[in-house]
From TrEMBL:
Catalysed transformations (reactions): [phosphate](n) + ATP = [phosphate](n+1) + ADP
Record's protein name: Polyphosphate kinase
Residues reported to bind ATP: N74, Y499, R595, H623
Source species of the chain: Leifsonella bigeumensis
Claim: GTP-binding is one of the keywords in the record: no
Residue ranges of every copy of the Polyphosphate kinase N-terminal domain listed in the record: 36-141
Post-translational modification (record): An intermediate of this reaction is the autophosphorylated ppk in which a phosphate is covalently linked to a histidine residue through a N-P bond.
Cofactor(s) in the UniProt record: Mg(2+)
Gene: ppk
Pfam families associated with the record: PP_kinase, PP_kinase_C, PP_kinase_C_1, PP_kinase_N
């Protein structure tokens, strides 16, 4: 099907393009079958890009160690959720979602092969590149073999007084069955033999998580920072744990378990109770990966494989140390010269008081016009947090409504809501207790809020509430006025310092009315279909995006200006991708800026030659979502919480808001121009599915770093200024 036939079949060449058009078009089979890239392999390619940052000798050394730790944590979650989910579906006979036409077992096999390659490369980067560089910088991660007698004598004292008391060896014999191995814990397998009977025994020793992963060695008067991995120190004191026994073998191992919570939502059951039950089950999910040190003997390995019930494909042999996520501790070393230069976020120029030395007034600033925030370049504390804190103490504020998906442990946002409720204001908090890996924290927040008198809603049955919304209702001169915030990131002051996000503060009455209706529906029983400045999932966000893609397709076919620019974390939805392919065939220039998973195959002749895909990784995690459409000469730009994934469009409550200020539209255009420029460092997705890093010119000069450029531009802004 070509682009014109596509438009004709959906009636878009002639209809009025309202929200009731037919969006049920399905590819008729004329598009190539191999047009989608595999989402799981695409995610592994994203983590490879993280690893390439750790390999980059031009980056500050401790940042490279940090990227090694991020790679490790990313891969852990990938196995706990994505691989575990695929395996569970295969074992239970459920359909496995795949858009590349491969058999499920083939998908798992391809994932395993690629993951083995990446984990081996990850270990080599630490051993051959980062560790030697740390040594040169005076930060030594030693092994027991590196220590002299004096060091060993001093560390014996550390072991005896600080470590030995918390160790718990567990024997395995007829009286002691094989112990439960908790997910992601680091363990030592120990085989011992009794000198009296000659009988061999097996024991498991868990490396305590309450102790530092890297134990600092005493100062040897050389001015060096020296550490030894905790498991290495413990393994060289096993005779104290098994007195009188001969130590035959000891090796490190680590198990990853299925920790994907599947809550069967039933309107007749308390959702919190159901979720808490599932969280208990999560701890005992089946093993899906076994990491072992490459010197482990076959006898021990056979025992672990048999007792854990895993396959050879799920065994990963790696050099010690395992679990390089522990390098987060090394990153925290106070060596600023080995890190990115510190950046202090500025207060948004639009939120500065008009009069010098006047107190900031967020409501007065928003009243002057929409404020587009760009975190972490602009401060979350002096914008979003200040907005809610001022609302909590303002006697003219009557009500506050807020969604909470993830927040920090000591959240000033939650404190502001509690303060507002205790001051007698009407406060509604929609807490998404199904936010993965934050379920327990969100349940605790919800209960604290309820105790303070906040009206707490736990979302909707069958849907996650992922949108980032805050609404303040304020009385001004006898009239109620709405102040709104719609963002792309969570209300989390901690992640706001490292996640790149956008947010809109507005006093626009239409946005306020839209949010009022949406909050009422979220706390009630239905989601209304139509809003004025919002696109809301699950009912009409997909339709709204498809409609705007088709408008661009029609414009290109008729010679009108056209163009699509999208920035997301992930894009995998087949219907949206197919619409983009057809737009490309019609001649629409399409720029996709994707941090993570991308199933689009760009640059294919006759299919996607007008599509460019870029990815940017750096000191901040690119997290904002932007949808920009040329729309002839009347551009439409939306920001919000949704990625182009099935879950975001069909199984979550998501919200996009349309920007209206011409200066803000120019700002978004300039941001895309910078991201897609050949003078900006980025990864380019090729037709083959490979990502190629472009970080230097042919002459070897470094390309500009987008985040550094944006940082400088925003720091230099004056009141009322633009890019």
């Amino acid at each position: 099907m070509d682009a014109q036939s596509f438009l004709d079949d959906t009636g878009l060449a002639t209809d009025s393009l309202d929200d009731d058009y037919d969006s049920t078009w399905v590819d008729d089979g004329t598009l190539p079958e191999d047009r989608f890239l595999d989402r799981e392999l695409s995610w592994l390619a994203f983590n490879q890009r993280v690893l390439e940052l750790a390999e980059d000798e031009n980056l500050p050394l401790l940042e490279r160690a940090n990227f090694l730790a991020i790679f490790s944590n990313n891969l852990d979650e990938f196995f706990m959720v994505r691989v575990a989910g695929l395996k569970r579906r295969i074992m239970t006979g459920l359909a496995v979602p795949t858009n590349v036409g491969r058999a499920p077992l083939d998908v798992l096999s391809a994932i395993s092969e690629r993951a083995h390659e990446l984990q081996a490369r990850h270990a080599a980067v630490f051993r051959d590149l980062v560790k030697p560089a740390l040594d040169d910088a005076g930060i030594h991660i030693e092994t027991w073999a590196d220590l002299d007698d004096e060091d060993r004598e001093r560390i014996d004292e550390i072991f005896s007084t600080r470590i030995f008391p918390v160790l718990m060896p567990l024997a395995v014999d007829p009286a002691h069955p094989f112990p439960y191995i908790s997910g992601l814990s680091l363990n030592l397998s120990v085989r011992v033999r009794s000198p009296k009977t000659g009988k061999e025994e097996f024991a498991r020793l868990k490396v305590p998580t309450v102790l530092p992963r890297f134990v600092q060695l005493p100062d040897d008067e050389r001015g060096l920072l020296r550490f030894i991995p905790l498991e290495d120190l413990v393994s060289n004191h096993l005779e104290e744990l098994f007195p009188g026994m001969e130590i035959l073998e000891h090796h490190e191992f680590r198990v990853t378990r299925n920790e994907d919570v599947e809550v069967e939502e039933d309107e007749s059951e308390n959702l919190i109770q159901s979720l808490e039950r599932e969280l208990l089950r999560r701890r005992f999910g089946p093993p899906i990966r076994l990491e072992i040190t490459d010197d482990m003997d076959e006898r021990t390995l056979e025992l672990l494989v048999r007792e854990l019930g895993i396959t050879e494909q799920e065994v990963y042999r790696l050099p010690a140390p395992l679990d390089l996520g522990g390098l987060f501790e090394v990153f925290r070393i106070d060596r600023p010269e080995l890190k990115y230069r510190k950046h202090v976020p500025t207060t948004s120029a639009a939120l500065l008081p008009v009069e010098p030395n006047a107190e900031p007034d967020v409501f007065a600033s928003i009243s002057r016009g929409d404020v587009l925030l760009h975190h972490p370049y602009e401060s979350f504390a002096t914008s979003v947090q200040a907005f809610l804190e001022q609302a909590a103490r303002d006697p003219n504020v009557l009500a506050i409504k807020q969604t909470l998906y993830r927040t920090s442990g000591d959240s000033p946002i939650v404190e502001a809501l509690i303060d507002a409720a205790e001051a007698g204001k009407a406060v509604l908090a929609l807490v998404e207790i199904k936010a993965r890996f934050d379920e327990s924290a969100n349940i605790n927040w919800a209960r604290q809020l309820e105790k303070a008198g906040v009206h707490v809603v736990y979302g909707m049955v069958g849907l996650k509430t992922h949108c980032k919304l805050a609404l303040v209702v304020r009385e001004e001169g006898g009239v109620l006025r709405h102040y709104s915030h719609i963002g792309t990131g969570n209300y989390n002051p901690k992640t706001s310092r490292i996640y790149e996000d956008l947010g809109l503060l507005t006093a626009d009455d239409q946005v306020g009315k839209d949010l009022t209706r949406l909050f009422n529906e979220l706390s009630g029983y239905a989601i209304e279909k139509k809003f004025k400045r919002l696109l809301v999932a699950p009912l009409h966000l997909r339709k709204g995006l498809l409609k705007r893609i088709r408008v661009e397709t029609q414009n290109a076919l008729t010679g009108a200006p056209s163009g699509i620019r999208i920035k997301v974390n992930s894009i995998v939805d087949e219907a949206i991708i197919d619409a983009l392919y057809l737009a490309s065939q019609a001649g629409v220039p399409i720029d996709l800026w994707v941090r993570g998973i991308c199933s689009v195959r760009p640059g294919v002749e006759g299919l996607s030659e007008n599509i460019r895909v870029r990815s940017i990784l750096g000191r901040y995690l690119e997290h904002s979502r932007i949808f920009s459409f040329a729309n002839g000469d009347d551009p439409q730009v939306f920001i919000g919480s949704a990625d182009i994934m099935h879950r975001n469009l069909d199984r979550r409550v998501e919200t996009l808001v349309r920007l209206a200020d011409p200066g803000q539209l120019q700002e978004v255009t300039a941001l895309f121009d910078l991201a897609m420029s050949e003078e900006t460092a980025s990864w380019w997705l090729e037709e083959s599915g490979e990502w190629t890093r472009h970080a230097a010119t042919v002459a070897g000069d470094e390309l500009q770093d987008l985040q550094d450029v944006v940082m400088r531009q925003i720091s230099a802004r004056k009141r009322g200024g633009t890019w």
